[in-house]
Each structure stands twice: as C-alpha cells, then as structure tokens.
Amino acid sequence: MTTKDNAPVAKKVGHAMELFGDVRVDNYYWLRDDSRSSPEVLSYLQEENAYTDSVMAGGRRVCSPVRKGPYYYYERTLEAKEYVQYCRRLVPNPNAPPSVHDTMPTGPDAPQEHVILDENVKAQSRQYYSIAAFKVSPNNKLVAYAEDTKGDEIYTVYVIDAQTGAYVDKPLLGVTAYLQWADDGNLVYITMDETLRPHKAWLHKLGTEQSSDSCLYHEKDDMFSLDLQASESKKFLFIASESRTTRFNFYLDVSKPEDGLKALTPRVDGIDTSVSHRGNHFFIKRRSDEFFNSEVVACPLDNTSATTLLLPHRDSVKIQDIQLFNDHLVVYEREKGLPKVTIYGLPDVGEPLQILQGGHIVEFIDPIYSVELSESSLFTSSILRLYYSSMKTPPSVYDYDMKTGISVLKKIETVLGGFDASNYVIERKWANARDGTQIPISIVYHKDLVKLDGSDPLLLYGYGSYEICIDPSFDASWLSLLDRGFVYAIAHIRGGGEMGRQWYENGKFLKKKNTLTDFIACAEYLIKNKYCSKEKLCINGGSAGGLLIGAVLNMRPDLFKAAVAEVPFVDVLTTMLDPTIPLTTSEWEEWGDPRNEEFYFYMKSYSPVDNVKAQHYPNILVTAGLNDPRVMYSEPAKFVAKLRDLKTDDNLLLFKCEFGAGHNSKSGRFEKLQEESLKYAFIMKALNMIPDLGSGQK
C-alpha cells in the first residue's frame, strides 16, 4: 500500500503494552525482526529505500607515520580505493633518540615500504568490511587484527606474520575489538554475552585452541561491561569493569601473564577510576560525586591503597584524561567548554611523588578547536603527538617537545578544490536556556557568502548524551554546504561533557528534557540573531542525537524546515523496558529504568515514537543500518511508519535503511561520502536549492 505520492505505508498490527495502568498500542511492533530475515519486513524496508531513491534521484594519501621500535608504521589510502593499506618501513637510524624534526624517508634511497595488510583485498566481494583493532606484537614480528564483515560489531581476530602475511594461528571467533598483546606469544581479548555486553576477558596462548583459553575475569552484573587498555609503559595491561557511574580496575603484568589479574582499584558504587603506570607507581584518575571533575593520585605498585594526591579536584576544570611519559604527565582538561593540554614534569623514577605544580599549557591557533591525544607517542621520549583541528583548520598532526616547547606540524590533511582557511569565520556564541543556563554554540561560515540578515540557510547539529564532547573540529563534507552560503553550527547542549561533569548530570535521567530545550533555545538564538530564519533552519543528529532530533520535531515542528535523524534512538520506552535488547541494562544509568513508575512516565513524555501526533512536520530524512547492534533498525522504521500515518502535511518523509551497514554506516570511504551526499542533497532539496529532476533521473 502506498500514499498518493507513492510513499510506502506500513500495515498496522496492534500490539498492546501495559505498565502502571498505562496502555500503549504499538501498531508497528511487527517491524522488529531480530533475525533480520523476515521476507515481509525486508520487503517493506526495500520499498522505503526504493521510494527514497526515487525522490532523491536527481589521490594517494599517507597518514603521519608512527615510530615503534625499528619501524615506522602508517596507513596509506590509494586513489579511487575504498579502504586503507597498513604499511611499515625500517627506521634508518633506530638507535637515535626521537626528535620532533624526525621524518620518515620516502625517496629511492629510503628503506623499502612493506604492505602488511591491504583492506581493499580483504574487502573484495563484501558489502561491509572494517578492521577495528590492528595490534603489532612487541617484537614487531606478528600482527593481530579484529575484522567485522557485517557491521554488527562482532569480530574475528586473525594473527599474521607481519612480513609474509601468512596466518600463524587459528582465528578467534565471536570477540570484541578489545585486543592487546600480553607478550610475543599471548593475546588478551574480550567476548560478549547474548546482549552484546562485553563480559569476559580471556588469555590466549598462540598455537592453542580458543576453547582452551583461560578466563581472566567474568563480569556477571549486567549493568557493567569490560574494557581493555595497555599502559603507556607497555609493562601492564589493565582490564576495567564499568557502568555509567562506576569503574574499577585490575592489572596484568605482561612479564608474567600466567599469574593472571590482580585488583588495582576497588569496586565502590559511584567511584570511577582510570589507571596507568610509570616506574614504581600506578597513576589513577578518580571521579566521585564529591570530586565530580576528577582528581589524580598515585600509589606504589606494592601498596595500591596508599595513594598520594598529585592533582586536586577543581569545580571549574574537568580532568578528562591523562597520558604518562617517563618524565612527564600530560593532562587533558576542559575549561569553559574548550579542551586544553597541560604538561607537568615528573621527578625521576624512584623519587617521592607529591602535588604537581608549574604545569605549562600548550597554545593553539584558533579561538575554538578540537585536540586529541595520540596513543602512539613513545613513552620514553619527550615527544607528545597531538591531533588538532578547528572548524576551519583541517586535521593536523603535531609533534610537541615537552622539554623545549617546540611544536612541529608533521601533517595536515589535504583539502581539494582550492580550499583557503582564511575564507571562513569561526565563532563561539552563547544561548540562554529556559532556566537561564548559558549554552555554547560553535559556528562557521564563508565570510563572502553569508549575509547574516536572516536569509542564510543553516544546519544545526546536536548530540547531548553520555558525557560525549562534540568539539568544533573540521569536517571536509561541510564545505559543500559552506561554499553554497550555509552557516554550520554545533549546539553544545547539556547531557554532553563539554562544560564538565555537571553539564552531563544536568542532561540525563529526570533532567533529560534539558537536552531537548537547550537545543530549541540554540535554534531560537540563531533565528533571533539573524543567522537564519525558520524557513532556512535545518537540523541533524545521530543515534542519541537522533533521539534529540525526533523529540524536538514533536515539540517544535514549526521551528525547522528540514531534519535528518541518522540511526536514531527513537523508541526509548519500549527499548528500555526490554532487557533482551543489546545495551538496555547498562543504559538504565543513562536514561533511567522505566520499570520505576517515575522514570516510566518521564521517559514516555519525550520518547519520539510515543509522542508522534497529528500535526504538521518539516521535511524529514531518517536512516538506519539493518545490522546495527546499538539502535535496532526497527526503531527508526516504526518512527517513520507512525509519522507517515499521522502527520498532516505534504512535506518529504524519507527512510533509508542500509542492508550492508551497522551503527556507523557503510564501511568504505566513498560509500560514507555517498551517505553524506544523500543527507546534504536532501537538505538542499527541502530548501529548494536544487532542481527537481523527476523520478528515474540521476
């Protein structure tokens, strides 16, 4: 069945759900098929894809190399190829100390390049291909990598000879991407339960059967999941068990992996600890309700309960992460909505530790920016590698000498099409939320193409969940919009972590609606201050950000011209009531447990599927991935079906479900660009900025 414009209409099959005397009828519950094989469901999804297609018809690169032992390791992208090659070259003088001025030689006299693995070969004849972990053994002779060929984030680990590419062990099946070498002959990995919760850590000895691997730890509490990290010193592996509010750690001495795990930080409700190692101390970043922005302490290896305070908690500065070197501690902090990097010198190993003072801050060139740590920095050196970008500065790799303060640009991403950063203006503005809270907005536009009189088109992005920081970084795909006169803006709303831990706490649980009203306040600010008008305002978000988009569409459909909700988490109440769905139990500490009556009715009041009503909606594009393990494809499918049934307008409503994709869209780089182009073409079509070519034309 279709509408008058040939849009597919899903059949209705009433499915009643009752709790706390409240009855909800889900007419589209039948669209959920956990096997992803129902002919009826797949047929409907294909009809939606065909409808979307009919409406919307219309160089070589090398990443900055990382030095590890006697080799430089790097990834190469070949012209017109979807995937990368993993490569290495010998370091000409491996005994020389690292310097910020080091460069990998590439001329005819340079050591020969060796391609360890070519994803393009592995991905042949596959709809989806992704390598999520690529780990070189300590002696540089072997590589273990985790491969996903469906997009469901269930991996197979292969071990190959780094020189010949030959398999040297049987594959490890049904594992996560958490993978580390314990030593040259042992791997540590993590597996999941039936709800895809990482719950068991294993030690695998090369040459033995997976069935004989020893279980290092089994987390039986379904609110907790396991994590696996290597210390910067490479002396220890750390296995953490974490919920949304609590995290505790074990350590494995890689020189004695057969000894198993030892407890490092205790399991205490509400205490979140992350750990690292240097010399005879473990370093611990610790957060609690009292010290909500975290503090840093250290403890001796042989007395983990005897902690010494190194960096105290501060109400206005959040300690986001730490990175250890033999002579330095690097602290990644957040203040006034922006990241910063502070470097402290450390006493010689073996000397007493005390409160650290006199840290120096790394300076950056833009007023708003993004900076990320690199795990590839060498522990024994003074060279810190940083990944930097802004909304007008392409992704850049810097090596920073922590002793001299000298910073050297090692690589900046090439942007084709005559890109000139000086053509773009970036700004930080602040919108007043309903309760008076100031909400930061990051903005970029082409200085010669916008009028700032309310007539410019604008795309506003939002996320606002899980304490995730959406920093103002560079995205080349925006240029197609900016160079057409768009303004692009990011709303740094509560529920994210941009302004510290309290920013997150004030956008979750029974304060989740702050996330939604903050976004509306940012939209209203941009309209009031002439960055756009209602007729030119488009919005975009994905996953939990797709929940945001769905909710504000129900609350203020009059405010927007077009919306794109990517893999949106829109059936909040039904999903959170079903513990058999992946991630549900661990998500109760983010959204609340709707088996509690107060949470049930609060969540129902904003859950997008439960609040679709008979009203005018703007133009809407919704996407999904059939194999998505995080947001089931049936959630966006139900949202679209209900919208199509109830909405009272003739605006576009399109749904695209990728059959060969998971939560993170398709795997190839050009395939990802095609998905971005669909999004932007839809927005421009909604704004009447491209001609209607009619069905059947490309």
TrEMBL record:
What's an example of a GO molecular-function annotation for this chain? serine-type endopeptidase activity
Q: Which residues form the Peptidase S9 prolyl oligopeptidase catalytic domain?
A: 473-688
SUPFAM superfamilies attached here? alpha/beta-Hydrolases, Peptidase/esterase 'gauge' domain
Q: Which Pfam families match?
A: Peptidase_S9, Peptidase_S9_N
Q: What does the entry give for GO biological process?
A: proteolysis
Q: What cellular-component terms does GO give this entry?
A: cytosol
Gene3D superfamilies named among the record's database cross-references: alpha/beta hydrolase, Prolyl oligopeptidase, N-terminal domain
Q: List the catalytic activities from the record.
A: Hydrolysis of Pro-|-Xaa >> Ala-|-Xaa in oligopeptides
Residues in Peptidase S9A N-terminal domain copies: 8-410
Q: What is its EC number?
A: 3.4.21.-
**Keywords from the named record:** Hydrolase, Protease, Serine protease
User: What is the stated purpose of this protein?
Assistant: Serine peptidase whose precise substrate specificity remains unclear. Does not cleave peptides after a arginine or lysine residue. Regulates trans-Golgi network morphology and sorting by regulating the membrane binding of the AP-1 complex. May play a role in the regulation of synaptic vesicle exocytosis.
| Family per record | Belongs to the peptidase S9A family.
Protein name listed in UniProt: Prolyl endopeptidase
